[in-house]
Amino acid sequence: MKKSTPRRQFLLQSGALLGAGLLANPFSGWTSPLQKFWTVGEIMDLFISQVPKAPFAQTVDTIKIGSRDTVVTGIVTTMFPSIAIIKKAVELKANLIIPHEPTFYSGQDETDYLQNDPVFRGKYDLLAKHQITIWRNHDYVHRMQDDGVRIGVVEELGWKDYYTPGSPILQIPTTHLKGIIDHIKTRMQVPAMRYVGDLNQPVSKVLLLPGAVGGKTQITRIQEHRPDVLICGESNEWETPEYVKTANELGMKLSMVEIGHSASEEGGSEFVKNWLHTHVPGVPVYHIPSGNSLSVY
Ligand SMILES: [Zn+2]
User: Fold this and answer.
1) Which residues crowd ion ligand 1, with CB under 5 Å?
2) Domains delineated in the chain
Protein backbone atom coordinates (compact mmCIF):
# COMPACT_ATOMS: atom_id res chain seq x y z
CA MET A 1 0.00 0.00 0.00
CA LYS A 2 1.20 3.50 -0.69
CA LYS A 3 2.05 5.77 2.17
CA SER A 4 -1.21 6.34 3.98
CA THR A 5 -3.04 9.55 3.42
CA PRO A 6 -5.22 10.72 6.31
CA ARG A 7 -8.30 9.61 4.40
CA ARG A 8 -6.90 6.16 3.74
CA GLN A 9 -5.80 5.81 7.33
CA PHE A 10 -9.27 6.70 8.47
CA LEU A 11 -10.77 4.09 6.18
CA LEU A 12 -8.42 1.42 7.44
CA GLN A 13 -8.73 2.21 11.12
CA SER A 14 -12.49 2.47 10.97
CA GLY A 15 -12.94 -0.69 8.98
CA ALA A 16 -15.26 -2.54 11.31
CA LEU A 17 -17.45 0.44 12.05
CA LEU A 18 -17.70 1.51 8.44
CA GLY A 19 -18.35 -2.02 7.34
CA ALA A 20 -21.33 -2.22 9.63
CA GLY A 21 -23.44 -0.09 7.34
CA LEU A 22 -24.10 3.34 5.97
CA LEU A 23 -22.06 6.12 7.40
CA ALA A 24 -21.59 9.72 6.46
CA ASN A 25 -18.21 10.23 4.90
CA PRO A 26 -16.82 13.48 6.31
CA PHE A 27 -13.96 13.55 3.78
CA SER A 28 -16.03 13.37 0.70
CA GLY A 29 -17.50 16.49 -0.79
CA TRP A 30 -17.69 14.99 -4.25
CA THR A 31 -19.73 11.86 -3.67
CA SER A 32 -23.16 11.42 -2.20
CA PRO A 33 -23.43 12.51 1.45
CA LEU A 34 -24.22 8.97 2.52
CA GLN A 35 -21.62 6.56 1.20
CA LYS A 36 -21.64 2.85 1.85
CA PHE A 37 -18.28 1.33 2.70
CA TRP A 38 -17.93 -2.33 1.91
CA THR A 39 -15.85 -4.91 3.73
CA VAL A 40 -14.53 -8.02 2.01
CA GLY A 41 -16.89 -10.13 4.12
CA GLU A 42 -19.96 -8.14 3.11
CA ILE A 43 -19.13 -8.52 -0.57
CA MET A 44 -18.52 -12.26 -0.16
CA ASP A 45 -21.78 -12.73 1.75
CA LEU A 46 -23.78 -10.77 -0.80
CA PHE A 47 -22.47 -12.83 -3.70
CA ILE A 48 -22.96 -16.10 -1.85
CA SER A 49 -26.52 -15.14 -0.83
CA GLN A 50 -27.73 -15.35 -4.44
CA VAL A 51 -26.34 -18.84 -5.07
CA PRO A 52 -28.81 -21.71 -4.58
CA LYS A 53 -28.04 -23.95 -1.58
CA ALA A 54 -25.13 -21.73 -0.52
CA PRO A 55 -23.04 -21.29 1.56
CA PHE A 56 -21.36 -24.63 0.87
CA ALA A 57 -19.79 -26.61 3.71
CA GLN A 58 -17.04 -27.76 1.36
CA THR A 59 -15.62 -25.17 -1.01
CA VAL A 60 -12.34 -23.90 -2.37
CA ASP A 61 -13.78 -20.37 -2.29
CA THR A 62 -11.91 -19.18 0.78
CA ILE A 63 -9.79 -16.15 1.62
CA LYS A 64 -6.21 -17.05 0.63
CA ILE A 65 -4.59 -14.04 2.27
CA GLY A 66 -5.99 -10.98 4.04
CA SER A 67 -9.16 -10.50 6.03
CA ARG A 68 -12.95 -10.38 5.84
CA ASP A 69 -12.87 -7.13 7.81
CA THR A 70 -10.79 -5.14 5.36
CA VAL A 71 -12.60 -2.13 3.92
CA VAL A 72 -12.43 -2.52 0.14
CA THR A 73 -10.88 0.33 -1.84
CA GLY A 74 -11.22 -1.37 -5.22
CA ILE A 75 -11.60 -4.84 -6.75
CA VAL A 76 -9.78 -6.66 -9.52
CA THR A 77 -11.37 -9.78 -11.03
CA THR A 78 -9.19 -12.19 -13.00
CA MET A 79 -8.50 -15.87 -13.61
CA PHE A 80 -5.12 -16.19 -11.86
CA PRO A 81 -3.62 -13.59 -9.49
CA SER A 82 -0.23 -13.44 -11.19
CA ILE A 83 2.50 -11.02 -10.14
CA ALA A 84 1.49 -8.77 -13.05
CA ILE A 85 -2.11 -8.74 -11.84
CA ILE A 86 -1.06 -7.97 -8.26
CA LYS A 87 1.09 -5.05 -9.46
CA LYS A 88 -1.79 -3.69 -11.52
CA ALA A 89 -4.11 -3.95 -8.52
CA VAL A 90 -1.61 -1.94 -6.45
CA GLU A 91 -1.44 0.68 -9.22
CA LEU A 92 -5.23 0.90 -9.27
CA LYS A 93 -5.38 1.11 -5.46
CA ALA A 94 -7.54 -2.01 -5.42
CA ASN A 95 -6.98 -4.06 -2.26
CA LEU A 96 -9.27 -7.01 -3.12
CA ILE A 97 -8.47 -9.48 -5.89
CA ILE A 98 -11.13 -12.03 -6.81
CA PRO A 99 -9.54 -14.77 -8.94
CA HIS A 100 -11.40 -17.77 -10.30
CA GLU A 101 -8.52 -20.16 -9.88
CA PRO A 102 -5.93 -21.01 -7.20
CA THR A 103 -3.40 -18.49 -5.96
CA PHE A 104 -0.79 -21.01 -4.83
CA TYR A 105 -0.71 -23.69 -7.49
CA SER A 106 -3.07 -26.39 -6.19
CA GLY A 107 -6.80 -26.87 -5.88
CA GLN A 108 -6.87 -26.31 -2.13
CA ASP A 109 -4.07 -23.73 -2.13
CA GLU A 110 -2.01 -25.82 0.28
CA THR A 111 1.04 -23.84 1.32
CA ASP A 112 2.68 -26.02 4.03
CA TYR A 113 5.19 -27.47 1.59
CA LEU A 114 5.92 -24.08 0.02
CA GLN A 115 6.86 -22.01 3.05
CA ASN A 116 10.57 -21.77 2.13
CA ASP A 117 10.01 -21.78 -1.62
CA PRO A 118 11.34 -18.60 -3.27
CA VAL A 119 8.52 -18.54 -5.84
CA PHE A 120 5.81 -18.84 -3.20
CA ARG A 121 7.54 -16.28 -0.97
CA GLY A 122 7.92 -13.80 -3.81
CA LYS A 123 4.17 -13.83 -4.41
CA TYR A 124 2.96 -14.13 -0.84
CA ASP A 125 5.24 -11.41 0.49
CA LEU A 126 4.21 -9.03 -2.31
CA LEU A 127 0.55 -9.53 -1.39
CA ALA A 128 1.28 -9.09 2.31
CA LYS A 129 3.35 -5.96 1.73
CA HIS A 130 0.47 -4.27 -0.09
CA GLN A 131 -2.19 -5.62 2.29
CA ILE A 132 -4.16 -7.22 -0.51
CA THR A 133 -6.93 -9.68 0.27
CA ILE A 134 -7.62 -12.56 -2.11
CA TRP A 135 -10.98 -14.28 -2.16
CA ARG A 136 -11.32 -17.07 -4.68
CA ASN A 137 -14.70 -17.24 -6.40
CA HIS A 138 -14.89 -20.54 -8.23
CA ASP A 139 -17.61 -22.80 -6.84
CA TYR A 140 -20.08 -20.00 -6.19
CA VAL A 141 -19.97 -18.37 -9.62
CA HIS A 142 -20.24 -21.77 -11.32
CA ARG A 143 -23.25 -22.72 -9.20
CA MET A 144 -25.37 -19.63 -9.65
CA GLN A 145 -28.88 -20.18 -11.01
CA ASP A 146 -27.14 -20.39 -14.39
CA ASP A 147 -23.35 -20.86 -14.49
CA GLY A 148 -21.92 -17.32 -14.44
CA VAL A 149 -18.70 -18.41 -16.11
CA ARG A 150 -20.52 -20.01 -19.05
CA ILE A 151 -22.70 -16.92 -19.48
CA GLY A 152 -19.57 -14.74 -19.55
CA VAL A 153 -17.79 -17.01 -22.03
CA VAL A 154 -20.82 -17.21 -24.34
CA GLU A 155 -20.98 -13.41 -24.35
CA GLU A 156 -17.28 -13.14 -25.07
CA LEU A 157 -17.68 -15.50 -28.04
CA GLY A 158 -20.65 -13.48 -29.33
CA TRP A 159 -22.88 -16.57 -29.19
CA LYS A 160 -25.70 -15.31 -26.97
CA ASP A 161 -28.27 -15.89 -29.73
CA TYR A 162 -27.40 -19.59 -29.81
CA TYR A 163 -27.38 -20.12 -26.05
CA THR A 164 -30.02 -21.93 -24.02
CA PRO A 165 -29.63 -21.17 -20.28
CA GLY A 166 -28.37 -24.21 -18.42
CA SER A 167 -27.14 -26.02 -21.52
CA PRO A 168 -23.53 -26.55 -22.67
CA ILE A 169 -24.75 -27.11 -26.24
CA LEU A 170 -24.84 -24.28 -28.79
CA GLN A 171 -26.17 -24.68 -32.30
CA ILE A 172 -24.17 -22.12 -34.27
CA PRO A 173 -24.41 -21.31 -38.01
CA THR A 174 -22.53 -24.02 -39.90
CA THR A 175 -18.83 -23.37 -40.41
CA HIS A 176 -15.82 -25.67 -40.34
CA LEU A 177 -13.38 -26.47 -37.58
CA LYS A 178 -10.87 -23.96 -38.93
CA GLY A 179 -13.55 -21.26 -38.84
CA ILE A 180 -14.31 -21.99 -35.18
CA ILE A 181 -10.63 -21.81 -34.27
CA ASP A 182 -10.21 -18.50 -36.11
CA HIS A 183 -13.31 -17.14 -34.36
CA ILE A 184 -11.96 -18.06 -30.91
CA LYS A 185 -8.53 -16.62 -31.75
CA THR A 186 -10.13 -13.29 -32.60
CA ARG A 187 -12.66 -13.09 -29.78
CA MET A 188 -10.40 -14.36 -27.01
CA GLN A 189 -7.07 -13.04 -28.29
CA VAL A 190 -5.43 -16.44 -28.23
CA PRO A 191 -2.62 -16.69 -30.83
CA ALA A 192 -2.89 -20.45 -31.41
CA MET A 193 -4.69 -23.49 -30.09
CA ARG A 194 -4.23 -27.25 -30.05
CA TYR A 195 -6.97 -29.32 -31.64
CA VAL A 196 -7.87 -32.86 -32.68
CA GLY A 197 -9.73 -33.54 -35.94
CA ASP A 198 -10.03 -32.31 -39.50
CA LEU A 199 -9.80 -28.53 -39.99
CA ASN A 200 -12.28 -28.81 -42.89
CA GLN A 201 -14.87 -30.73 -40.88
CA PRO A 202 -18.27 -28.96 -40.94
CA VAL A 203 -19.28 -27.80 -37.47
CA SER A 204 -22.55 -26.48 -36.08
CA LYS A 205 -23.24 -28.34 -32.84
CA VAL A 206 -20.80 -27.07 -30.21
CA LEU A 207 -20.22 -28.60 -26.78
CA LEU A 208 -18.79 -25.76 -24.67
CA LEU A 209 -16.98 -26.84 -21.51
CA PRO A 210 -14.61 -24.05 -20.42
CA GLY A 211 -11.84 -24.78 -17.92
CA ALA A 212 -10.81 -28.33 -17.03
CA VAL A 213 -13.85 -30.43 -16.13
CA GLY A 214 -11.88 -33.68 -16.44
CA GLY A 215 -11.59 -36.33 -19.14
CA LYS A 216 -14.41 -38.52 -17.90
CA THR A 217 -16.86 -35.61 -17.73
CA GLN A 218 -15.81 -34.36 -21.18
CA ILE A 219 -16.31 -37.82 -22.71
CA THR A 220 -19.62 -38.35 -20.87
CA ARG A 221 -20.94 -35.05 -22.24
CA ILE A 222 -19.81 -36.06 -25.74
CA GLN A 223 -21.78 -39.33 -25.33
CA GLU A 224 -24.86 -37.43 -24.13
CA HIS A 225 -24.90 -34.71 -26.77
CA ARG A 226 -23.02 -36.07 -29.81
CA PRO A 227 -21.54 -32.67 -30.74
CA ASP A 228 -19.48 -31.85 -33.83
CA VAL A 229 -16.84 -30.23 -31.67
CA LEU A 230 -15.87 -30.01 -28.02
CA ILE A 231 -14.45 -26.64 -27.03
CA CYS A 232 -12.65 -26.78 -23.68
CA GLY A 233 -9.93 -25.10 -21.67
CA GLU A 234 -7.67 -28.08 -21.27
CA SER A 235 -7.57 -31.83 -20.80
CA ASN A 236 -5.00 -34.51 -20.06
CA GLU A 237 -3.51 -35.55 -23.39
CA TRP A 238 -4.05 -39.23 -22.63
CA GLU A 239 -7.77 -38.84 -21.99
CA THR A 240 -10.16 -36.84 -24.22
CA PRO A 241 -7.67 -36.06 -27.04
CA GLU A 242 -6.99 -39.80 -27.46
CA TYR A 243 -10.72 -40.51 -27.38
CA VAL A 244 -11.40 -37.92 -30.08
CA LYS A 245 -8.44 -39.20 -32.12
CA THR A 246 -9.86 -42.74 -31.96
CA ALA A 247 -13.25 -41.44 -33.09
CA ASN A 248 -11.56 -39.84 -36.11
CA GLU A 249 -9.66 -43.03 -36.88
CA LEU A 250 -12.99 -44.87 -36.90
CA GLY A 251 -14.38 -42.34 -39.38
CA MET A 252 -16.65 -40.49 -36.97
CA LYS A 253 -17.28 -36.75 -37.23
CA LEU A 254 -15.92 -35.34 -33.97
CA SER A 255 -13.28 -32.77 -33.12
CA MET A 256 -11.98 -30.86 -30.13
CA VAL A 257 -10.29 -27.53 -29.48
CA GLU A 258 -8.29 -26.58 -26.40
CA ILE A 259 -8.26 -22.84 -25.76
CA GLY A 260 -6.00 -22.95 -22.67
CA HIS A 261 -7.45 -22.89 -19.17
CA SER A 262 -7.12 -19.21 -18.36
CA ALA A 263 -8.41 -17.79 -21.64
CA SER A 264 -11.24 -20.32 -21.79
CA GLU A 265 -12.86 -19.03 -18.59
CA GLU A 266 -11.79 -15.39 -18.60
CA GLY A 267 -15.31 -14.42 -19.67
CA GLY A 268 -16.38 -15.53 -16.19
CA SER A 269 -14.21 -12.83 -14.61
CA GLU A 270 -15.90 -10.25 -16.83
CA PHE A 271 -19.24 -11.63 -15.61
CA VAL A 272 -18.15 -11.24 -11.95
CA LYS A 273 -16.93 -7.70 -12.64
CA ASN A 274 -20.32 -6.76 -14.13
CA TRP A 275 -22.13 -8.38 -11.21
CA LEU A 276 -20.08 -6.37 -8.72
CA HIS A 277 -20.66 -3.16 -10.70
CA THR A 278 -24.39 -3.66 -10.29
CA HIS A 279 -24.54 -4.96 -6.73
CA VAL A 280 -21.64 -3.24 -4.96
CA PRO A 281 -22.11 0.40 -5.90
CA GLY A 282 -19.41 2.92 -5.11
CA VAL A 283 -16.51 0.46 -5.28
CA PRO A 284 -14.28 0.64 -8.39
CA VAL A 285 -14.15 -2.76 -10.12
CA TYR A 286 -11.76 -3.84 -12.86
CA HIS A 287 -11.47 -7.04 -14.87
CA ILE A 288 -7.89 -7.72 -15.90
CA PRO A 289 -7.29 -10.90 -17.95
CA SER A 290 -4.34 -12.89 -16.61
CA GLY A 291 -3.62 -14.68 -19.90
CA ASN A 292 -2.65 -18.30 -20.60
CA SER A 293 0.40 -19.54 -18.70
CA LEU A 294 1.70 -21.63 -21.62
CA SER A 295 2.93 -19.87 -24.74
CA VAL A 296 3.03 -21.36 -28.23
CA TYR A 297 6.01 -21.02 -30.55
ZN1 LIG B 1 -14.16 -22.52 -13.64
Assistant:
1) 211, 265
2) 6-144+267-287 (3.40.1390.30), 151-259 (3.40.1390.30)
